[in-house]
Amino acid sequence: MKIFYADNHDLNLPPGHRFPSGKYGKLRRALLENEIIGAASLHPSPLANDTELTRAHAPEYVAAIETGTIDPKAMRRIGFPWSPFVAKRARATMGGAVAAAKAALEDGFSGQLAGGTHHAHYDFGSGYCVFNDFAVAALALIAEGLAKRVVIIDLDVHQGDGNAAILSPREDVFVLSVHGEKNFPFRKATSDLDLNLPDGVEDREYLSAVAGVLPAVWEFKPDIVLYQAGVDPLKEDRLGRMALTHNGLKKRDKLVLGECKRRGVPVSLGLGGGYANPIDLSVAAYANTYRAAKAVYGF
Questions:
Q1: With contact defined as beta carbons under 8 Å apart, do 237 and 276 qualify?
Q2: What CATH number is attached to the domain comprising 84?
């Protein structure tokens, strides 16, 4: 089993920036210290190349991010100031997504300790998302003939509008998004299947809702599932507006991963959300996702 990480490419954000970039390194340490994943399974993410990026994104946009010629207003929409560190980290996150998806096809399960950048559209980024990791990975698998039908299961509390905009028009990709009806983005795109949930939803209702939409995934007969295991439905998440417990999120991940394994569908995992105060609560939720994966796959 291979799991990829990109926290060796620090974003180097200004002091006081609200994005908790240190959470990814904390997660890697937590996985090792708690013996959830062994060091031999962890690999640095490769950098995505231009061919991989421009399958999902406008070449002009990719070049502007790479060179720093992007309009400052466009960077404000993303939420980061431009820097070569941000550009390189974005490439590493995309490369990790592609590498994890290919590893999942070989081993049945893989993932990366980053990702979930589902607000990035074809020619602009948004919501702390520079490029779209699931779009880049899905289109890489299809272009290289490694998969014919790809499903994205997006359970971040925020709708994956970038996933929907880039991928839903395609007949070989199915995008499922379960998210907060009143949460960001406030102008939502149209996925293949969207499930809007109210503020304050708790474990039982949420788990029932997720179980109710999964049959649509199996009807599509995917060769692989790209799973965004967003942890921001957690009650303590500052941006989530839902009320799930750590146990509820862990049950959700066991449900999704268990159903994939039972049907022999490989899974590549990406992480989403994570803005709890303190951030260690989000890190614990990320770690629980990998605990759930370990329980299902026995690695």
A1: yes
A2: 3.40.800.20
Q: What is the pLDDT of residue 211?
A: 98
With 0-12 CB in 10 A as exposed, 13-18 as middle and 19+ as buried, what is 92?
A: buried
Token pair for residue 56?
Answer: 């999902």
Distances (CA, A) of 171 to 127, 138, 156, 163, 166: 27, 12, 23, 14, 12
**Residue 41 is which amino acid?**
S
Q: What is the residue range of 187's domain?
A: 3-297
List residues with catalytic annotation.
119
Residue 167 corresponds to which amino acid? L
Helix, coil or strand: residue 199 = coil
Radius of gyration of the chain (CA): 17
Q: What is the pTM of this model?
A: 0.97
Query: Distance between CA 126 and CA 149 in Å, rounded?
Result: 27
Number of domains in the chain: 1
